[in-house]
Amino acid sequence: MSKTTTVAEESTQPDPDATDPRHVDDGPTTEADDAADWRTGADDRLTEVESADGSWAVAAALAIAGIGFVVGSPVLLAGATIPLWYTAVASLGGRPETRIAAHRALVLESDAVDATRDTKDADDALSGKPGDVVTVRTTLYNAGDQPAVDLRVVDGVPDALPVVEGTPRTCVTLEPGEETTLEYGVELQRGEHEFAEPAMRGRSLTGATRVDWESPVAGGEQLVCSPAVANAPLGTGRNDYAGEVPTDEGGSGVEFHSVRDYEPGDPVRSIDWRRYANTRELATVEYRAERSTRILCVVDARSSQALSPAGSTLSALELCADAAERTAGRLLTEGHPTGVAAMHNRRALFVPPGTGSATREHVTGFLQSLSGDEDDVSVPARRLYDDPVTAIPRVVPGETQVYLFSSFVDDAPLDLVERLRSQGYSVCVVAPEVSGGAHATPAGGRSASEDDPGVPAGDPCVTPLATRLAGIDRDTRLAHARVAGATVVEWDLDRSLGLVLDRALGVVGR
């Protein structure tokens, strides 16, 4: 599949002049007009002006003159006037009149075809999945008639987005009409993010006056990271409520199931009239009954899930919580009663399956809070003070399908799968690959040598060997989960979660 580039920009244009012939016609403006708009729309807001204190010059002049008088040096006596001249020139020069126009473009390279969107509206902001790298290009243009000397700029990167490529800072000198571009990459995290105005600092030609200000930015300013699962296929578990999952039972539906003898009270529309016309015998046609299915998404939120895959700042817990949130959101949209649970080190948290906006709000808030302190869960949740492996199966409702999101770096999730399967529950395991990279590290970014003083720093063999052994152990656990009867989805993070689930489980109800 070919890669496409998605660019999110917004245009900030000044009010058109009624006498300007470019605006007589209501036709669309050209790209050149749009480019001119942001370059001429600089509206800087001063935040601080600091001028050099002249007291140092007086002190320096007196000191140099005193030394010259003591040693009898005319050169030093004449040089004592230099600091005074510098201060005089600086005071006459005043503060720099710098006008900088800024434009920001947000670029997301993905495997999915996407259209160009205007990100001024939060509902149409550039969207991606967690871990995607968004390239930010901020162009700075000197819209004034004076050079911008020693211009220092820091772009307003959202606090929650780490910079993984380049730098959002620059220090340049721009002549009038000259421009420069800041280019860097940020890694998407869950949530909505808005860029702030870049902070700028300039100096006068003498360097005696410093000016700090913020400049409005045209172009992209909002990013959204809350992609939904395109399809969350379901197994055969169901309840007694009507839904979309076909069953092996006869009843109301659209797919043919069987023909049986007519019984008094059968609906007239179910009678096989063609057979009656041929044989004069009444028979009833039954269709495959469709039921809804109850879902419980279980997230492994223990401390062992702090491991991050190579090249990503997202921990296994954040990946699992995001996958569970997207899956639960899709299932709730389709009308399936959905709940969530979390495995902690010494206890479990449980939100029972339900439907409606209240359940959606509880499920979303619960999953978004998992990456923080387990005591900070802000939504109503049942707390089970026991080993999660034994506590969770006790509260799972009957005829419930369980989705378990865990990286399987230890035996606890496997024990939970085996216990659930022994009680007859349908289990689907979604296991993100976090131990396969040779440089997988904890989410805090600490290396193996930092966590274990016995590991030599820079040893090229220890970490890759330990990683390979951890990968083998993980594969063994997943194999045991398959033997227990669970459906196992090994989530390669380079693939979309929706595609992974769809390919692993097939069409709904199959």
Tell me what the structure shows.
The structure is a single chain. The protein has 510 residues and is an alpha/beta fold. 27% of the residues lie in helices and 32% in strands. It has twelve helices and 26 strands. The strands form six sheets. Strands 1, 3, 4, 6, 8, 10 and 14 form a seven-stranded mixed β-sheet that branches. Helix 2 runs antiparallel to helix 4 (82-93).
Any descriptors?
disordered N terminus; alpha/beta; 27% helix; 7-stranded mixed β-sheet; 32% strand; 510 residues; 12 helices
Assembly state of the chains shown: single chain
Instruction: Determine the structural class based on helices, strands and strand pairing.
Output: alpha/beta
Quick one: CATH class of the largest domain? Alpha Beta
What separation lies between the terminal Cα atoms? Answer: 28 Å
CATH superfamily of the largest domain: von Willebrand factor, type A domain
CATH architecture classification of the largest domain? 3-Layer(aba) Sandwich
Instruction: Please state roughly what percent of the residues sit in beta strands, choosing from under 5%, 5-15%, 15-25%, 25-35%, 35-45% or over 45%.
Output: 25-35%
Given the structure, what is the number of helices? 12
Low-confidence stretches: 1-35, 111-120, 236-251, 437-462, 505-510
**What is the gyration radius calculated from CA atoms?**
33 Å
CATH fold-level label of the largest domain: Rossmann fold
Give average pLDDT, whole number. 73
Total count of domains: 4
